[in-house]
Amino acid sequence: TWKWVVGPMFLYLCERLVRFWRSQQKVVITKVVIHPFKTIELQMMKKGFKMEVGQYIFVKCPAVSKLEWHPFTLTSAPEEDYFSIHIRIVGDWTEGLFNACGCDKQEFQEAWKLPKIAVDGPFGTASEDVFSYETVMLVGAGIGVTPFASVLKSVWYKYCHDATNLKLKKIYFYWLCRDTHAFEWFADLLQSLEAQMQERNNAEFLSYNIYLTGWDESQATHFVMHHEEEKDVITGLKQKTLYGRPNWENEFKTIAGQHPGSRIGVFLCGPEGLADTLNKQSISNSEADPRGVHFIFNKENF
């Protein structure tokens, strides 16, 4: 038995040593941004840190807990000179980090007062393959929208600097959430991207749909009253917020009709139930003919 145990144990020990070494490297918090509804953004720098879109890191804050590591998706783009994460305050550890960063105080915090942070990663995800397709469907549910912040930022940087070498030509983005106010920072990113694409006369590059799944009758009435306004009253975007859940069969058939003979990447960050639905739709709407349209499903579950 020992012959079968020694090899895996040696590899596991090596992996733990590498992770321990990486976690000891110095991390500098360059900025802490407080967003609405108790969401904070940590912008950090670390020597030799290299990332791709949609990746995630493990974070430890010894001032809060010396043993706990928590995974967070990177919301910055590889083209930026820092890396960032967005943290929503929903538990004891995140509350402790919120207080350790001085976010509970009104006065300006000096950089040297910020807590020490240990970072392990980054680690890869399916979202890294976004730029391998000409057409993609990005589906984010709730906090699962965070990896697509990195993707959309990177698309904007690539588009601004050298759009001719960008293989990706069309993005269909779907955001399903109970309350957009919890992620106003992401709506701001969409606003910026929307404005930049209009300035470059390529507003069709990004097609997005925001679905509020936790709506009630009063919200629906308010929505009808303001539907004719130029910008959405909830997000401030030109694309109006929709209520309920998308009809995925219609969405897939529409996209398949607009891109015949294409390989379309479908990327999800969301719950397992939604993953099953999108996987079935990807299979049923892909043609048997190799020259026909094919949906390639990629997922990250939480």
UniProtKB/TrEMBL annotation:
GO terms for cellular component: monoatomic ion channel complex; NADPH oxidase complex. Its main location: membrane. Its cofactor is FAD. Pfam families: FAD_binding_8, NAD_binding_6. PROSITE patterns: FAD_FR. It is a multi-pass membrane protein. Coiled coil: none annotated. It comes from the Eukaryota. It is found in: Cell membrane. One of its GO terms (biological process) is monoatomic ion transmembrane transport. Keywords: Cell membrane, Electron transport, FAD, Flavoprotein, Glycoprotein, Heme, Ion channel, Ion transport, Iron, Isopeptide bond, Membrane, Metal-binding, NADP, Oxidoreductase, Phosphoprotein, Transmembrane, Transmembrane helix, Transport, Ubl conjugation, Voltage-gated channel. Catalytic subunit of the phagocyte NADPH oxidase complex that mediates the transfer of electrons from cytosolic NADPH to O2 to produce the superoxide anion (O2(-)). In the activated complex, electrons are first transferred from NADPH to flavin adenine dinucleotide (FAD) and subsequently transferred via two heme molecules to molecular oxygen, producing superoxide through an outer-sphere reaction. This is NADPH oxidase 2.
